[in-house]
Amino acid sequence: MIEKLPELVNNNEALIRRGRWLNDVFLVEVGEIQYLVHGAAGRVEA
User: Which end of the chain is more exposed for a tag (fewer CB within 10 A), N or C?
Assistant: First the structure.
């Protein structure tokens, strides 16, 4: 599911509008697996 995060977020105009000022890198941890998520202007880049 985490692999689909960029597609799910970037295809949702309401989320993009809401996060348009968000430019950040944050950690998402699922069990023992960690993912760095890069966000820019409300979109997930990686």
Answer: N
